[in-house]
Amino acid sequence: MKRRVLVIGVAAVLLVLAAGAGGLYAYDSSRSDVIAGGITLGGIDVGGLSAGRARDVLQRSLGAKLGKELVVKWRGRGGVLRAPDIDAHLNLDRMIQEALRRSRQGNFIHRAVRELRGDKVHAQLPTRVAYSRDKLYGFIESIAKQIDQPAADAKIDPNGLTLNFTPSREGIAVQKRWLALRILRELRDPNSRHVAVVPTRKLRPHVSTARLAYKYQTFITIDRANFRLRLWKNLKLAHTYTIAVGRQGLETPAGLYEINDRQVNPSWHVPNSAWAGALAGRVIPPGPDDPIKSRWLGFYNGAGIHGTEEISSLGTAASHGCIRMSIPDVEQLFPLVPLHTPIYVG
């Protein structure tokens, strides 16, 4: 008898629990479309609202802010972006789904008890904006065209008068991906000023001014028309000398060369040329018969820079193709000009 009473009691308790659970389940199911208290979307409190009601509230509260013009700027350049330009609109479906998903976390008993007790979820969910990626990056490209500037390498374009040196210049490029993120952040933030500063990065030249100056620590230019040799150090004019150049028919060869031979008190290796007469092919050692005085800086096929005692020939076209200098001048020049120094004859 006692056992029967115990079984009946347990059954009654189970029935009560089942009825209670069924009631909680029914209550929870009836609120499947209701957002839990304490949830905000884009800073708007939508707790306790149905999905449809929350949609209306969000559209009224956030739609107008999204429609404001967004200024994109960089040093006086930039443009204005309007939401329709990139098909931007509130992604209300996603926002509501995220709010309901957060509301439905846990089992039905947990959710029902939480609702009945008035407890809150306390979740701040962001504004979601749908947009056309192609149109957004099309707008960003239009901004980049105003701002982007390629880097310029340092270079020289020598002639007889000067090196025509062009210094290097850094370039600049819009960081397009970061600009897209800034624009979207401004659109999504209901408290933003709707201003996006364009992020940029510097572009380094392949050949900087410093690198070019290091490469051309020494450079020689020959101005045949004005009979001047100019010595450049680190791309700056260091010395100018009066010279003699090749006479008509035996002109000093024009072009870009390099110093390939350096000698002190050189011998004269007479070219096998008709103008040399009986001396052709001979080697004249240093001394009074040697017209190449003191120093020799060879650069092309027997042509070079050397000293001369014929001072009256300086400032004229008088040599057989070489470049003549006064002996003091060539002795000053010689230690300043290492092998492989570029020389431009113009």
Task: Describe this structure as you would to a colleague.
The strands form 9 sheets. A 5-stranded mixed sheet has the order 15-14-13-25-17, with no helix packed on it. The chain has a domain of 130 residues: Beta Barrel (L,D-transpeptidase catalytic domain-like), CATH 2.40.440.10. Helix 1 packs across helix 4 and helix 2 packs across helix 3. The model has no long low-confidence stretch (mean pLDDT 90). With 346 residues, the chain is of the alpha+beta class. It is rod-shaped, with a radius of gyration of 44 Å. A hairpin with an 8-residue loop joins strand 8 and strand 9. The chain contains 8 helices and 25 strands. Helices cover 32% and strands 27% of the residues.
Number of strands: 25
Helix content: 25-40%
Gyration radius, to the nearest Å?
Answer: 44 Å
Strand content: 25-35%
CATH topology of the domain at 216-345: L,D-transpeptidase catalytic domain-like
Query: Main β-sheet: number of strands, strand sense, barrel status?
Result: 5 strands, mixed
Shape: rod-shaped
Going by helix content, strand content and strand pairing, the class is: alpha+beta
Mean pLDDT: 90
Helical run tally: 8
Residue windows where pLDDT falls under 50 for at least 5 positions = none
Q: Tell me, what is the CATH class of the domain at 216-345?
A: Mainly Beta
